[in-house]
Every structure is written in structure tokens, then in C-alpha cells.
Amino acid sequence: MPSELKAVTYVSGSDASLVAQGAHAQIRALLGDRDPSLVVEEFGGPTAEEFEVGAIVDSLMTPGFLVDRRIVVVRDAGKLNAVDATRLMAAFSAMPASSLCVLVAGGGTVPASLVTWVKEHGHTSATQAGTGKARTAWIADHVKDAPVRLTPRATEMLSQHLGEDLGRLEGIFQVLLSTYGGAVTIDVDELAPYLGDAGGVPPWDLTDAIDKGNASVALDVLSRMLEAGGRAGPEIVSLLHRHFAQMLKLDGTSARSREEAAQILGSSPFPAGKALDRARTLGSAGITSALSLIATADVEVKGMSALEPSLVLEILVARLARLGGRAGRR
């Protein structure tokens, strides 16, 4: 929460669990030690009936009774349309100083005009963890603010285990707090029994392991994508095809830098640079072999094989990793 109190807050994000946790944190910060039954009024949400924006406006314009603050929470703000957004922005500009509003993402796309207004006049709270360094920083911030203390080793274990399933983070913190209390520093041995099932992982974890020729890691990632990630066999075949097809587009071109590769692929420079490097390492023959393996697996995973789809994928990933390993040793 910013040090300067803002009248309107927008909690954004695509993960419903993280959005709910972010909204709870914002409401709790605004509430302080006040009685929520007297201060908070909620509209919307997955179990609520369709809300009428007029009722929200009325609530915003009504001063708090016996309290110095009134918090109006609008859940599933993506259900608001452009006309609703215009009415709300007018209300935000005219509501009493005691009124505060928390808009919570969900239910669709929040009108752009409303998001822009909040960015200019209010406060936005993004719940996305991001990727790479941004994700690492996001986890570090949450561990730092957690009710329990974790060692760096335990933090790394937690990050690797949860993968994309970061919505479970706060729940794990609460379990650890109830088990060990807040005074104990938790290491990997204390953490391990409370992690539960491994979470899903992003697709680039699979392609990176394949490119490095690390079959063991690639197969572990594949298992997590199928089980915790809930990805279907054809979806994984499709992402592998896309990965190697990008290399094929660059094979034989005059691209010498990641910026030139990005122009050809129509993507950002970082992934384009990786594709360019791999295209050079594998060469035309290697890329062709990889795409041939993927084409065969595509047919087999859709039922044209006596093997289970998961086994077809394991064989494919192992062969692609072996191909990547051989290319890397040349």
C-alpha cells in the first residue's frame, strides 16, 4: 500500500487466486482496526448476482455511518462496460473523502478508460508474478513479508516446487505458521513435508532443458506440465513444433543479431536471439530431424498409436533432448 492514501485502487491480474489474495491485502490495509461489517460493502463476485452500477455509485456517495471510512469493493470489475466506467469515474471525482473503492479484476476485461483513470488518479496493484528475474523478485518480496522466516535454500525449494502455481504460496505460509510459529527459521527439511504436489511449470522450462540436451530435467518438466499444469498431449506437441519451427524460419537467413531475428519472427529480441542461437547449433539437418520426430508424435498422441499419449511424449522429449545434446557437443 502506498504511503499516500488513494481513494481508488485497482487490483489487476489473471490468476484468480493471486487476485483474491491481493484484494484481501489491499482491503485489510485500508480497513486497519475498523469493524468490516460497518465499513466494507461488496458488489459482484462469482457467487453474486449481476451488480447494478447505480447501486455502486449510491454506495460511493453515501458517507460512512458511525465510522470515518467507507470501503466499496467491486469484484469481477471486468463485467463493467464503457458506460458503467464513465458513471464510476464521475462518482470517484465527486464522492466524499470518507469513501474508498477497491476494483478487483475478473469477469472479463476492465474498460481501458477506467484503468487509465485509476493509473492517473488512484493506485494500481498488479498481482502477476511475471517471469525470470521479475518472478524471482516477486517471490522474494512475498517471502520477506511472510509471517514465517525461510532460509535462502528453503525459498529456492519453494519457488522451484510451486512453479506457476503461486496462488498456493499464502496457504503454505499459513500452514507453516500454525505448525512452527513465527519465531522459527524454516529450512528445507522443515518445509518439505508441507509443500504438497508440485505445481505446473512454464513451457520454456521444457524447451530450455531440451535445448541443453538434459533429458532427465526435460522429462521431469514434462511430467509436471501434464499433471500439475493440466496440459493436454496435443498442446505440448504444438508448443514443441512452434519452438523448432521458429528455428526453421531463421535457418538459412541473413540474420546475424537477435534484433534481426526478431524482425523475421515478429517477436521480442530475447526469445528471437535464443532461437537464432539454437538454429545455428542444430543446423538444417538437426532442425529437420526434430520437426520429423514432432510430426510423428503429433499423429501418435491423437490416437494413431497403441502407446499411451504420455509415453509418446516421453519418447519424443527424450529423443529431442538427445538431438540437442549431440548438437551441443559438436
Structure report:
- The chain has 15 helices and 7 strands.
- It has 330 residues and is an alpha/beta fold.
- The protein has 3 domains: 8-126, P-loop containing nucleotide triphosphate hydrolases (Rossmann fold, 3-Layer(aba) Sandwich); 132-194, Orthogonal Bundle (Helicase, Ruva Protein, domain 3); 203-328, Zinc Finger, Delta Prime, domain 3.
- It has a 5-stranded parallel sheet with strand order 2-3-4-1-5, with helices on both faces. Strands 6-7 form a two-stranded parallel sheet.
- Helix 3 (53-61) packs parallel to helix 4, helix 10 runs antiparallel to helix 11 (215-226) and helix 13 (258-265) packs across helix 14.
- The longest helix has 33 residues, at 269-301.
Spell out the key features of this protein.
single chain, 330 residues, alpha/beta, Rossmann fold, Helicase, Ruva Protein, domain 3, Zinc Finger, Delta Prime, domain 3, five-stranded parallel sheet, two-stranded parallel sheet, globular
Mean pLDDT: 84
Low-pLDDT stretches are: none
Q: Quote the beta fraction.
A: 5-15%
What's the number of structural domains?
3
Backbone structural class: alpha/beta
What is the CATH architecture descriptor of the largest domain?
Up-down Bundle
The CATH class assignment of the largest domain is: Mainly Alpha
The total of beta strands comes to 7
**Biggest sheet, strands in spatial order?**
2-3-4-1-5
Order of helices and strands: EHHEHEHEHEHEHHEHHHHHHH
What percent of the residues sit in helical stretches (DSSP H or I)?
55-70%
Radius of gyration, taken over Cα atoms and rounded to an integer in Å:
25 Å
How would you sum up the global shape?
Answer: globular
- Write down the CATH topology of the largest domain: Zinc Finger, Delta Prime, domain 3
Output the number of helix runs.
Answer: 15
Main sheet, how many strands, which sense, barrel?
A: 5 strands, parallel
Termini separation (Å)? Answer: 53 Å
